[in-house]
Specification:
single chain; mainly alpha; 2 domains; three-stranded antiparallel sheet; two-stranded antiparallel ribbon; 13 helices; 5 strands; globular
Length: about 290
């Protein structure tokens, strides 16, 4: 049903763009964005299940996994924090039981794999966040929300542009995971953009020109940037990959007379992740294409 596919795309892309703009301007993205994507996507999936005449257990599993999604975004005490928190414990137990029944009755059906994909993606993204592979909480929440919005690969006539030798392989990798993968690949374009900017400005210092730009110190202190230089024993040293600890170095740079330090922008991963959504739709899976699948 291409109409539902387009509805998912418009919903997710619109909200992701709004969230990315918010994250760029304020370095925060409200959970409201993820609720809209997740709940909106679940409504579309429920409608699809209804049109397909799915058994009641599919709708029950969808309802439970939506409640799990809400619970993941809800900032609450842990299940075993300060005693036992019964509500989430009951929720997760019911979800496991429902999916167990679903597996017994409908294992192997197309709709079964669609429903199973959602909690599997929840677990994968949660684990990646816990192990700091996905750095930001907003990024993890966005991907979890996309798991509800795109439990199946959004196939559109003529897309993606990269044609695989085995087209069926395209659907093996869940679409939200492909968005994550392509978002990570798109971050590799940042050095190219920095290089072009610095060439135009004639700020030529390698390798700094690949990772940052020069900026007036006064302006830099009010921008979302990190200094790529620091003062050590009275000497200015380079720091190509700064972190949050570097934010305290502005005054020390001013004290030694640095007026235009090299800085690197704090680019939220939500931005390449947002670009990764249309990129995945239009281009497809670059890695699968390169290895010849």
């Amino acid at each position: 049903m291409e109409e539902l596919t387009w509805a998912r795309i418009i919903l997710a892309l619109t909200v992701m763009i709004v969230a990315a703009i918010s994250d760029w301007r304020t370095r925060t993205a409200s959970d409201v964005h993820w609720y809209i994507i997740g709940l909106g996507g679940s409504i579309l999936l429920g409608w699809q299940l209804w049109l397909d005449g799915a058994s009641w257990i599919f709708l029950a599993c969808l309802l439970l996994i939506v409640l799990v999604f809400i619970d993941l975004l809800w900032d609450r005490p842990g299940i075993f924090e300060d005693g036992i928190n019964p509500l989430p414990l009951v929720l997760y137990a019911l979800t496991v039981l429902a999916y167990g029944y679903l597996s017994l009755e409908h294992y192997g059906e197309d709709l079964y794999w669609i429903m199973v994909t959602i909690p599997l993606l929840f677990i994968i993204f949660f684990v990646l966040y816990q192990f700091d592979v996905i750095k930001g909480g907003a990024d993890a929440k966005a991907l979890i929300a996309l798991s509800l919005c795109f439990p199946i690969y959004p196939l559109i006539d003529g897309l993606p542009l990269l044609t695989l030798n085995q087209p069926a392989v395209l659907e093996v990798l869940p679409f939200p995971f492909l968005v994550l993968l392509n978002g990570a690949i798109l971050t590799l374009l940042v050095p190219i953009g920095m290089l072009i900017i610095n060439l135009l400005r004639r700020d030529l210092r390698f390798p700094h020109m690949l990772f940052g730009v020069r900026m007036d110190l006064k302006e830099a202190t009010s921008k979302h940037v990190w200094p790529m230089e620091k003062v050590v024993d009275g000497q200015v040293r380079s720091m190509l990959f700064p972190n949050s600890e570097a934010e305290d170095d502005w005054e020390s740079l001013r004290s030694v007379g640095v007026e235009r330090p090299w800085v690197t922008p704090k680019v939220p991963f939500l931005i390449p992740l947002t670009f990764g959504l249309p990129f995945s739709l239009l281009v497809g899976n670059i890695l699968f294409y390169i290895i010849g699948l």
